[in-house]
Amino acid sequence: MSQRVHNFSAGPAALPVEVLEQVRDELLDFRGTGASIIEASHRGKAYDRLHHEAMEDLATLLGFGAEHSVIFMGGGARSQFALVAMNLLGDGWGGYVNTGRWSDTAIGEAGKVGEVREIWSSKDAGFDHVPGADAFPSAAGAAYLHSTSNNTVAGTEILYDPSPEDAGATLVCDMSSDLLSRKVDVGRYGLIYAGAQKNLGPAGVTLVIARADVLERSRAAGLPAVFTYADQAAKRSLLNTPPVFPIYVVGLVLKRLLALGGLAATEALARNKSDMVYSAIDTSAGFYSGHAQRDSRSRMNVTFKTPSADLDDSFVEGAADAGLVGLKGHRSVGGLRASIYNSVPRASVETLVEYMQEFQRTHG
Ligand code: PMP
């Protein structure tokens, strides 16, 4: 596997090599069925089993029970920006915590559906912070309160589960870029959604975890069945042909996470890996500077820069030569970004830190 790069891409992102190997090994003949899983009926036994196991494994990992349902949908996280509003707004309004580019887009998309109110924003500060645990805003009277747990572009993260009682509304959270990187109190959320392509698997499936009361509310919206959370949940996401290949791979990733010790293990590893990069920034005597305020730092996307845009470019070029890819910052923030999701090995992060130190020594 020496030809594999150290992959710091923001998404689609690194997958565990063991999972990729299993996919390769099973691709032509899925577990003795004589056909690939992507050639098999989604109503057949082989697929049905892995579909339901993926749902159960997700519930086991996150520790939620029958009160919440897992729904696999297509359309990416971005389609949920609209679907949340379409299913849940009714005649009411949606409250939004604007912590980054994706929250901002969610507000814009939901605003095409109905009334939205931005109740908190760090936009004027370049999205360099999130609300602190004792200052999460409330949206009493809202149909729901939407937040984004990890801001992929700015590199900030809300590392606590807000209280729905204090918020005064059903909590909806976009966890696209940090789901399964820490324990989450799922009971606090009416709805969680996440595109798979960062922490969970390939692009093409979006995971939705919805509470029974939210499903019930979605019925009243009168939307076509494929867009209605309650209809999708009632059919266990087999209302129509689901994205079978991404669900299969997500299922393998979930089994691996369970085998590694569940979310306590992923949480410790995420903390450890991100601390290594932040420490390289903090001990660089100002050569590297982080974008996020310290108490808002993301464990998934570390955003930083060197003293100049030219040096940032040299950093990215030199890194690519050394087999470290995906380190260019998002165009809206500039600089550098190391995305270190669950499947990025610790060894890759060690290599990155060595490269950062060497780059500083030769360019500082
Ligand atoms: N939310 C967040 C937090 C994201 O990082 C992204 C993708 N970068 C999206 C939403 C949009 O996801 P998708 O491309 O799956 O629509």
Protein described:
The protein is an alpha/beta fold. 38% of the residues lie in helices and 16% in strands. The chain contains eleven helices and 14 strands. The strands form four sheets. The chain has a seven-stranded mixed beta sheet, sandwiched between helices. Strands 11-12-14 form a three-stranded antiparallel beta sheet. Strands 1-13 form a two-stranded parallel sheet. Strand 3, helix 4 and strand 4 form a beta-alpha-beta unit. Bound molecules: 4'-deoxy-4'-aminopyridoxal-5'-phosphate. 4'-deoxy-4'-aminopyridoxal-5'-phosphate binds next to helix 3.
Summary keywords:
alpha/beta; binds 4'-deoxy-4'-aminopyridoxal-5'-phosphate; globular; 3-stranded antiparallel β-sheet; 364 residues; 14 strands; single chain; 7-stranded mixed β-sheet
| Individual helix count | 11
Q: If you average the pLDDT, what whole number results?
A: 97
Structural class: alpha/beta
Ligand inventory reads: 4'-deoxy-4'-aminopyridoxal-5'-phosphate
**Which H/E pattern describes the elements?**
EHHEHEHEEEEHEEEHHHHEEHEEH
Largest sheet: 7 strands, mixed
Helix content: 25-40%
C-alpha Rg (nearest Å): 21 Å
Q: DSSP strand (E) fraction?
A: 15-25%
Could you give the count of β-strands? 14
Q: Residue ranges: pLDDT <50 for 5 or more in a row?
A: none
The gross shape turns out to be globular
**Largest sheet strand order:** 2-10-9-8-5-3-4
What's the end-to-end separation, in Å?
A: 33 Å
